[in-house]
Amino acid sequence: MSLEFRQARYPRHLLMEEHAEERDVKDNPLPDNIARKEAPRIPDVPEYEVARHFTRLSQMNYGVDTGFYPLGSCTMKYNPKFTEMLGKESKATELHPYQPEEGIQGSLQIMYELQKMLAEIGGMAQVTLQPAAGAQGEMTGLMIVHQYHMNNGNERNEVILPDTSHGTNPASAAMLGYKTVEIPSKDGCVDLKALEQAVGEKTAAFMLTNPNTLGLFEEDVKEVADIVHEAGGLLYYDGANLNAIMGKTNPGAMNFDIMHFNLHKTFSTPHGGGGPGAGPVGVTEELRSYLPVPIVEKNHDKYYFDHSLENSIGRVKGFYGNWLVLLKTYAYIKFKGKDGLTEAAERAVLNSNYLRKLLEEHLELPYKSLRKHEFVLSGKKLKDKGLRTMDLAKRLLDHGYHAPTIYFPLIVDEALMIEPTETERKETLDGFAEAFINILNEDPEIVKNAPHNTTVRRVDETKAAKKPILSYSMREK
Predict the structure, then answer these.
(1) Torsion from C-alpha of 421, 422, 427, 429, nearest 10 degrees
(2) Which residues make up the CATH 3.90.1150.10 domain(s) of the chain?
(3) CATH 3.40.640.10: which residues of the chain?
(4) CA 420, CA 81: separation in Å to the nearest integer?
(5) pLDDT in tens, 457-477
(6) Over the Cα atoms of the chain, what is R_g?
(7) Strand, coil or helix: what is 117?
C-alpha cells in the first residue's frame, strides 16, 4: 500500500513509525527545547480497532449514562439528550463572536430572555451571562463587592464564611486578596452570635449557601442578612444548591445582594466531565451598574449589547460567555417551565429524604433529620470494625455504584455526602440503599481491600496526588 493511499485512508497521526522519516520534524517551528527530536511512536491501526479501543475505554469508565451518581453538592447528574442535540446544531456552533448584532438577533434574543428568566428564578434585578463557571461567578461577585465598597469610600478586606461553606468560597475570596474569617455552625446552621461577633467595619461580604452543604435550610437567613447589612457588608449567595428551592423561594426573597447560578449543574448540563460550565451572576437593582459589560438589552424590536454600565467591573471572560451552555439552559428552562422547575425541586428534596430515611438507621445522621436536596452521614462507627468511609466508598464500586462525596464537609467526622437529585427513580434509590446496607454487614476484610472487580484496584491516593502520572508511555515491543 503506497504512502499516498494510506494518507488518504487514515489520519496522518496513525501512520506507522516506519514512515516517520517522511514526516519531517526538523522543520518544526517550535523552539528547540520543546520541539520533538523524533516522530512519536504511534501504531498504524485500522478504523475498527480504533473504534474498539475507545469503546472499551468508555466501558471501563463510569458516567452519567451508565449509572447512579450520588455525589453531594453537584445537583443535576443527568443531561437531557434534547439539549445536547440542540447544542450541536450548526446554527449555534458556527456563529462567530464578531458577527454584527444585526445578524445574530435570534441568539441575542435567547441571551436576553435567559437573563430575564434567571433574574426571576433568583429574585434578582439583572443578570450577567459572562462567567464561565460557578467559581468564576464567585470571583465576579466579589469583584463587584470590592468595587461597590471602593465607590462608597470603604476599604473593607474581610469575607466571612460559615464552616459549612463550599471550598471555592474561601478560595475565591483569598484569590482576590480578601482575608477569610470562618465562623462555627450551631446545630449545622449559621451561629448568629458568632456572626455578630465577626462582622465589623472591615466586613466586605458574607458568603452563604442555602440550603447549606449539610442539606439543612438556614431558617434564620433573614436575621443573617440583617446582621451583615447593619455592619455595611453585602450578602452573597452561592447557587450550588439552588435546585432545592426553585419555585419555592429565591435568594432575592432572602435579602441576598449577589448570587451566582451554576448552569452546568442545575439546568441541563451535568456537573463534571471536563466540559464547559456557566456561572451567571445576578445582583440587586443597587448593584446593577457594577455588572460586567456587555449585557444584552432590547430597544423596541432590536436586541443589542449594552456597554454603558457606569460602574462596571469590565469583562470577566472573552466575548459573551459559554454560549452553548447558555443555549442548553435556555431550552431546558423553556421546556420545564415554572411548574416543571418547582417539581424538580420537590423531587430533589423527596428523593433525598427518602434515601436518607433508608440509611440513617445504619450510620449516624448528625444534626436534625429533615434535609433538602442532600444529606450527610457520619461513618465514624465504621472505626469499630477497623474501617473508614474510604473503604465503604471503594466497596460501592464493586456493587456497580459510584461513591458519594466523602470527607466533606469537614465538620462531620468520616462524612458521606449523598445527593440523589431529582432525576432518579425509586427503584434506583432502593438498589443503592440495599448495596450500601449489605456492605455494612460484610466481612470487614473484604471491604477494607475493595474494590475487587474494577479495572484498577485501590490506588495510593496520597502518592497519586503528590506524584500523578500525566502521560502514557507505550510498552517496549
Answers:
(1) 20
(2) 346-466
(3) 81-336
(4) 20
(5) 888 888 888 988 876 554 443
(6) 25
(7) helix
- Are 213 and 73 within 8 A, CB to CB? yes
* Residue 249, all three cell numbers: 423561594
Separation between Cα atoms, residue 236 and residue 98, nearest integer Å = 34
Question: Would you state the CATH architecture of domain 346-466?
Answer: Alpha-Beta Complex (3.90)
- Is residue 198 a contact partner of residue 178, using CB atoms and an 8 Å limit? no
The answer for residues whose C-beta is within 8 angstroms of residue 297's C-beta and 6 or more apart is: 112, 303, 304, 305, 306
pLDDT per position as a tens digit, 421-453: 898 999 999 999 999 999 999 999 999 999 999
Which phi and psi angles does 337 have, rounded to 5°?
Answer: 70, 175
Which residues, listed in sequence order, are joined to residue 304 by a DSSP beta bridge?
297
Tell me the fold of 81-336: Aspartate Aminotransferase; domain 2 (3.40.640)
Q: Tell me the C-alpha distance between 173 and 142, whole Å.
A: 7
What are the distances in angstroms from CA 268 to CA 82, 128, 421, 465? 10, 19, 12, 31
Whether the model clears a pTM of 0.90, i.e. scores above it, the answer is no
